[in-house]
Amino acid sequence: MYSGRRDWAASFKDRPCPLNLNPVTLIPALSSPPAAVLWDMDGTLVDTEPYWMRAEHELVESFGGVWTHADAMLLVGSGLLGSAAILQNRGVNLAAEAIVDVLTTRVQEQLGSAGIPWRPGALELLTELHGAGMPMALVTMSEQRMARQIADLVGFNAFATIISGDMVQQSKPHPEAYLTAAGILGVDPEHCIAIEDSLPGVAAAVASGAVVLAVPHMVPLEQSEQYTLVQSLTGSSLATLTEVYLTRRSSPSTRTNTHTEDATRA
Fold this sequence. Notes:
The chain has 266 residues and is α/β, with parallel strands linked by helices. Helices cover 42% and strands 8% of the residues. The protein is globular and about 60 Å long.
């Protein structure tokens, strides 16, 4: 009996296609957009780095220290707790966790008074994706309270879920946050596209298996076979993301896993 079924299956491929269907239509994954879009926040969706830098300057100055632009640039893309250690070395006499709390509160105050400093093209793309019904997640290493504040200021319910640094055990460049977001959305991370701006964030997204669109901001990114590099989201659309997704999926890139125990503001 088993042999007969095998012979039938082997001969089936030689039969005419019923209803004259084009075989390509039987494989929607080859022509469909990504199942979800996973957004990084700081530096990708919003330009909060000047807010962080101002908060750092004020904090160091309040303890009688000096904080320069060069000092601030050292913290871009670095871990929150690691950043706190540097601030302690500049004379800030607070525990690391307290420093993170003070900085986050100050950045939130600036968001409340000055509004969201959108990265070029980000709000337009977010709006189009929302209108198209695209499932989206915000994946950030900032604290949940700050991420929710920004999500609430968008003007519409853009994100089906928010994964923040205080919700995960491993921070970027570990892929836990991206894997968690995809799991909550109920999609395979390999069917998602992630948008990132920093080295730790890009590494996390690549390690999760997602297709990665890298949009550098404060720190340059090198060209790589592991992600698609663009200089701005200006003019980007669902069609743009779909093209990137399909191109990368037709030519799978090398993926590597990286790990860290510190949190980043990404």
